[in-house]
Amino acid sequence: MNTLANQHCIIIREQVTTISIEQLKASLDAFVSEIKKSDSSTMNITLIKQIVSSLTYFSSKNKQLAGSEFITHPLFIILRDSVVVDYLRQRQNKDISYELLSDLSALFANISRHINNTNTHLFKQLLFHQPLIDELTNCLNEIGINGKYLDDFLLLNSIHFLLMAYQYFNRLQSIANEYSSMTSMCLAVIKCLCSSYSIEMIKKLENNFSQKLNHDHILLLSTCPLYLKWYSTNRDLNLFLQIPRILLSPFTQWMINCPSDSIIYCSKNFGNILRHLHNVLVRPIEWENDNISNEEFYNDYCKLVSHWSSFLSSALNYTSDDSDIISIKRFIVQHLYDFTLQPNILNFMKTIPNLIPMLLQMTDVQQDETQLNTYRCLGKLMSEADIKTMASPSKITGVYVKFLTNTIDDPKKQGRFYSILLSLKNFVQHDQVKIELIKQNALPLLIRCIIEIEFDSIKIKPIVLEILLALSFNNDASSILRQNTNFMTTIRNLVNNIHSNKSNLQRAAETLLWKLDKEIEAITKLTNSKLHKYDIMISYSHSDRQLCYQIHERLVQDGFSVWIDRDNMHGATMIAMAEAIENSEFVLICMSDTYKQSVYCQSEAHYAFERRCHLIPLIMKPCYKPDGWLGIMVSGKIYVDFVKLEFSLAYEKLKKEINQYRQLNMNYSMVKSKENNHQDISSIISKPVEETSILSGRPSIIELPHCITQWTNNHVQSFFRTNGLDNTMFLLCSQLDGHRLLELYDICMINRESMYQSLKGELADVHHRSLPISDYLTFLHEIKPYLPLMHTTSQSVSSSLPSSRVCKLM
């Protein structure tokens, strides 16, 4: 035993939390000196084991070794070259002390946990060492190709710790350009993960989550996928897609054979395998940003998400506050959220019975991460109708306001703050959520993020601007924003900053400024010119681009002049979009969940709607049904379903819709011309059959029942005629009875301005008549006495014969 080295080892262990930088440096210097003095190979190993053991213990308790004074200390360079690299090179030598290799690899992993943007360049000197990378890569290749060393747990442990050290690097976006030297290692890791040995491991797993796992399980099924999760944002798509193509099917088959209640007994190690495999099987790429469909994995994903839903159902049977149960629930919800990122699977999830009610139960779990992921799921899954039927929509916004308040000023919680904002962006599309956020004073928090310079301009500010843009469709919110001089000045500065390379930030600022400052002026300058530069403008979401491109190409082939933001997807300004809308005869609204959730798409559609453009809604995703602002906007219009119909049939239906509208417009223009010349129009065009019967054969005025829910269609006709609305509002309501008329009133009261625009547009498109604002307001006012008592727009009529205000007065 080396006496001097032993003394310093004792100091390091005894002063693990109090040792000074000077003392620690002196100890490391002494270790180097003693190693260099030693001539005996046996003594070297004994001495190094003693040193490594002490430093490994120290690094697990204290992060000082990650300081700039120590990372590249000669001791670590000696240990790297003389032990790690040399032992890996001699890995087939039975005399090698794999225990020392494992301990030293663990030491490197412990130190690497503290890599950050300030010390990255120093860590690179230690670990981005080509001989080390080459030997580790060779070892991984032998495992993946030949299954070597899978029974050598110490060597497998060493590889595990070294990969963990590198994956701490991979988490840092600042070193994304450093991966050229790591490509060979990445390929070797993928080879291991996709090997026949991994497949057999998955197939031979027991149907439970508490089974014993060996070191080969940990390395292949947990460490390898974890390393790949953080590898790089600029990954080769086909390279990473081979992982789900090879492993997804056996993994799914094993998973769905596990009983639902077995998840409650999931061990920590098995939980890691589930999490890490999930990341490379379910989230191998960002689907919205890559030119590929996830259809090839659809069936397996549907089976998996259904089974995860059954896991959630089982977990909810346990109401215990036990930390293990809470942890299980947390990671179930995390996995469910992963599936919501894929549009096709999201649509399938909406069909799973009781999934939304189960997630609503999870909002009561008192754990921030669980609550956050639960609301992230709900934000993707819930429709406007779901929000309205909630017992208290204010609960959602209350949680978000609490999260924002608790994290906005804490530098250590900025990652959490960003996640909260991303989640809130999904919810803020709902009108009820907008109203509650304003009530609960969320706007000042969001405005701070834009005005104050310490908030990140790359991540935080663009997301906040998108949330504010969504809120700006609420009149109260837009008024608050316009009146904040400091905020408006900041927005204008962001838009006018010609030196900015923050395209997302500038785009968001410009679109918001357009909404707050320029849109009203543009709409008031609405002209009736029939001359259009373009036949068609296509408004669509980036995730639906492939189908939209196909539609665009067919339209161009058929001679249509089409405007589409194809070459500069994320760069087209709102001004360019507005000019395209103003100069297009038709606007195709390409409807999907991602379209509705995009504030940019909403801005385009809203402006086209306000300009009274002829909108043609296209369905882009299976079973999609528009609701909320989009549902109001396309109300009464014929949808062209490009998913349900074959493409050629849907395209012909689209062309037919365009031609019919043009023919109707031409006939209407001819009628108007004849009217102006005081000629009889009957020979030119006859009124629509439906309208003719209404105006010529209408019944006489009859007495109305006291409550609207008792009205027949004849009563509805009489109501409109009595109030002088038979040539405007009644044309839109001719088929309604009292119950349906009440539903129309409820929709109007949720957003009176948008609904007026919707009704006005439908009346113009179908009946070629204008809807005076006075007629619309008369309808809303005159119907009030006939509403059921205690009726609000958020509740349905519970009784078939309720009392009304008129009844009460009598």
UniProtKB/TrEMBL annotation:
GO terms for biological process: signal transduction. InterPro entries: ARM-like, ARM-type_fold, TIR_dom, Toll_tir_struct_dom_sf. It comes from the Eukaryota. SUPFAM superfamilies: ARM repeat (SSF48371), Toll/Interleukin receptor TIR domain (SSF52200). SMART domains: TIR. Residues 533-664 form the TIR domain. PANTHER family: ARMADILLO-TYPE FOLD-RELATED (PTHR46270), TIR DOMAIN-CONTAINING PROTEIN (PTHR46270:SF2). This is TIR domain-containing protein.
